[in-house]
Amino acid sequence: MSDRLNRILLLIILLLALALRLYRLDGQSLWADEGNSAALAGRPLAQIARDAAHDIHPPLYYWLLHGWTRLFGTSEVGLRSLSVVLGLLLVWLTYLIGRRLHGLATGLLAAFLAAVNPFQVYYSQEARMYMLLAVCGAALFYTFVGLLGEEREAIEEEEGKEGKKGKKGKGAASLVSILSLIPLSTLGLYTHYSFPILLLAVNLLYLAWWVASCRQGRSWMRLARWAALQGAASLLFLPWLPIALKQATGWPGVAAPFAWKEALLATFRLLALGPACATKISGWWLIPFGVLPVWGLWPWKGKSNQQISKSMGPPSWFVWLVPVVWLVLPVLMMLALGLFKEAYLKFLLIASLPFCLLSARGMASAIVGLPTRAKNPLLSLFVFCVLLLLIPTGQALHGYYFDPTCARDDYRGVAQYVTAVARPDDAVLLNAPGQIEVWSYYDRSGLAIYPLPRQRPPDPAATIAELEAIAARHRTLYALLWATDESDPQRIVETWLDQHAFKATDVWQGNVRFVTYAFSHSVVEPAFAVAPQEPFGQYIWLREVAVLNDYVAPGDVVQVSLVWEAGQSVERRYKITLQLLDERNQVMAQRDAEPVGESRPTDGWRAGERIHDAHGLLIPLGTPPGSYRLIVGLYDRENGQRLRLADDSDHFTVGQITVERPTAPPPAAVLPIRYRRAFDFGEITLLGHDRYKRGYGHAPDTPLYPGDLLHVTFFWRADETVAQDWTFTLALYGQPVSLNAPLVSEAYPTSRWQAGEVVRGEHDLLLPPDLRPGRYRLVLTPAPGGRPEGTVTLGTIEVKKMAEEVKLRQIELVPFGEVGKELLNRLCMALQGAFGRPCRVVAGLPLPTWAYHPARRQFRADGFLQALRRLDAPDAERLLGVVDADCYAPGLNFVFGQASVGGREAVIALPRLRQSFYGLPEDEALFQERAVKEAVHELGHTYGLGHCPDPRCVMHFSNSLQDTDIKAATFCRACQEAISARLRQGHQP
User: Fold this and answer.
1) Is residue 449 packed enough to be buried (19+ CB in 10 Å), middle (13-18) or exposed (0-12)?
2) Is the pLDDT of residue 369 over 70?
3) What is the side-by-side order of every strand in the sheet holding 726-732?
């Protein structure tokens, strides 16, 4: 390859890397740690050092960012562009290292893989120090490999092995290489406390090289020189060393039980496809990412490889060992130090370069050294492999750029929303001190900010006293709950607010929860109150309903107080639904929650007990002015089945709520629009729309089938006063399927709109039962004054074919030994709701004594799976064993459950799900909830689901019982779609 072509290819790769790292650089909000970076960068250098001394990161990155932002500003682009430049530098270093170790072709391939690597792209767009850490490590290894090559050449010259004597002599290396190692090591130490892992790696490699060459040259002089280099770097770091030791050893520990298999798989996915949405990509796409590095690990002995090794300096075995140690050691250290936790996986960015290097070497090794006539077909195979890598890489990058579920914590969106809807007497609560900087970066509301709890561990009395003062002083409280397990492990703040305020919203914005609480107005009497005395089902009575405010504007919270009474003990968990309906029964506002802010589930209610239950119903932005009907219902949270009243209705109508026109229209940026393509129709602009299967707004990607209702929400803006009434036609292009309606409703025609007003309309389009499956264009035709004017395409929907009718076989619960009947019944009802299959408890089996380990006092979990396989159960689609005995699996100290890979059997173990196992007071409701989650989780595996990255999904891997408590008993959107597809197809093991 000519030097000119080499330079052109490298330039193309670097431009590609720059484009991917600049694309949508400000597309996502800064998250909490980036806000911390922005705050520190704005302080004087001495102050940065003092503040970093109380942080878990050294000051170098903040010093660099301080200078960078003086040149490029503190916008999101300005803050993140330093990481973009560092990411580009890492791609260039990847090329240099690959060329030095394995030759030009491998260097270019490795640089290309690094350029498109989602892991590197992600952290090249984050204003944190991890890309600087990776660059320091790469520069250290590049210089180190060069130094070893120079030492080897010098030894050979001294011994006259190649007839070149007297140039360097005595195993010497160049002064530049020697002196470069000192500042590079020092810079790395001042960048991140994980950098010593890389120093350990180069020291182990140098020791291996020294042992192999100790009989050549002046070995002890070389070793002494190397020790002096390390000592010099240590001396330069010495002023910061006491701080580093204090912070690294005193920071809260994160060690948690983990499975090595799961940890290694998570590492592999991370290195291949990054941290965003990699686990949503099928495992088959990961095969090339596994094959190529393994191929690259093979110690090739071909002629060309020997020439490459010789030309690059270090011996061939050392060339092979460098990327292996560089890749493996950080992973092993993470596992050994108990740092393997999702929040710390970014430290593995230092292993990304050797992963790309080994993958590139695997590609190059498939071609180099083969006979000429064999290269052409293998070259085609090589191109095919590259495509197999690029397809999942493109999917991962697309998810990172565009999928909201992959986004960082959206403080920007929350701040914009609060600024748009808040009133001067509202306030903001931040439950973790690390949020104050990022919130201050975005906040333009001017509201009072309360960081609670004020100390760690929290002072319950002082915290509650301040919460009482906040409730007396403010109308609405916007709470951002982040890292709650560390800041408020006892949930003092959240529990008090749930019990004393009207909780209106509770949504995740990345890893931060945005919760809206309203406090009761200072009124003697509510706006209206009723005493329904209505029984829901047979024994849950709604005794009182009080609405404190019945005149509201969009963004306000309707405060509803309910009083329930249980006629007898309640065994099931029910959710309350509050809905605001228009004259067409379209849902204009909705709040679904368990009683008392989720803190008093119904299965804990006792006979005769009265439950005072406060709810806040948020009026969404864009809700048209008018009068709406407020209803309350009660439904089973496992299967969604509503309880009926005496008149066979499924809800009680409370009364009328009047929504007034807001004083100012909301900005378009804060509207919850999924499809933000705007269309200007002159007087009126369509700002965007949402579309999903009716009733599945929480899971908008749920498949559509013939006979379904397609629900569409339009967000309109009147650009001027509208003199005539507009209608529209919504249709499937080329099909006799259409809807003709006013833009919002007959009750609020466009002639009543004001200039600048933003209004949303809710509509349903029926897909005929005989509609052929396929993809259809969804088209909209506006009609001012009833006269159609043009047609626009909103997008494409896919209507899927209904699966053939499949006989629903049942799920059978098999107790081993003594298991409580109440728990078994609860599990059966929950599984029936989760999987849509009949469920029954069958005769139990004895404990498999042959699977008992006397020394461990535990059973092997797979012993129960074997016993289930031998069970004669022809009608069972799935078998779930329930055992009240502690279980383990090879390599794991314990397991909560286990499932057969490719089979129909699963088992859950109960002891470690009880509070009493840990010396805590027993909580039967919590125990049964944990058992339900583990049962759904393990059966989910039998239906082909893997572990989910969403910590709130029931399929999320539980490293500890805390993880089980965080996640719900239901599937996330992606897992629900997957399990629904498998159930429709009658998924068999």
Assistant:
1) middle
2) no
3) 738-742, 726-732, 774-784, 792-799
Instruction: Give the residue-averaged pLDDT of 685-694.
Output: 94
Q: What is the C-alpha separation between 9 and 160, in angstroms, rounded?
A: 39
Tokens representing 826 are 């609860």
CA–CA distance, 632 with 634 (Å, rounded to integer)? 7
**Residues 41/65, Cβ–Cβ less than 8 Å:** yes
Does residue 258 register a pLDDT over 70? no
In the structure encoding, which two tokens stand for residue 26, read together? 């400000």
CA distance 481 to 588: 27
Instruction: Answer positive or negative: Cα dihedral of 764, 770, 772, 774.
Output: positive
For residue 76, count CB atoms less than 10 angstroms from its CB and return exposed for 0-12, middle for 13-18, buried for 19 or more. buried
CA dihedral 406, 411, 412, 417 (to 10 degrees): 110
Buried/exposed 1-10: b ≥16 CB within 10 Å, e otherwise? eeeeebeebb
Task: Give the Cα-Cα-Cα angle 453, 454, 459 (nearest 5 degrees).
Answer: 70
Average pLDDT value for the chain: 87
Q: Which one, of 528, 525, 605, 614, lies nearest residue 572 by Cα?
A: 605
* pTM of this structure: 0.78
- Three-state SS at 572: coil
How many other C-beta atoms lie within 10 A of the C-beta of residue 329? 19
User: Cis peptide leading into 44, omega within 30 of 0?
Assistant: no
SS3 600: coil
Which range has the worst mean pLDDT, 185-194, 219-228, 280-289, 303-312? Answer: 303-312
- Answer yes or no: are the C-beta atoms of 352 and 117 closer than 8 Å: yes
| Residue 66, pLDDT score | 97
Residue 287's closest CA among 399, 374, 362? 362
Structure-block tokens of residue 596:
């008392």
- Which residue out of 156, 565, 929, 938 is catalytically annotated? 938
The residue whose two tokens read 């290097």 is: 357
H helices of 652-766, in order, are none
Residue 938 is a catalytic residue: yes
Mean pLDDT of 41-64: 93
Do residues 778 and 796 make contact, with C-beta atoms less than 8 angstroms apart? yes
Which residues touch 442 (CB under 8 Å, ≥6 apart)? 29, 30, 411, 412, 414, 415, 416
Q: What is the pLDDT of residues 622-650, one digit of tens each?
A: 999 999 999 999 998 877 788 888 877 88
| 700 secondary structure, DSSP code | T
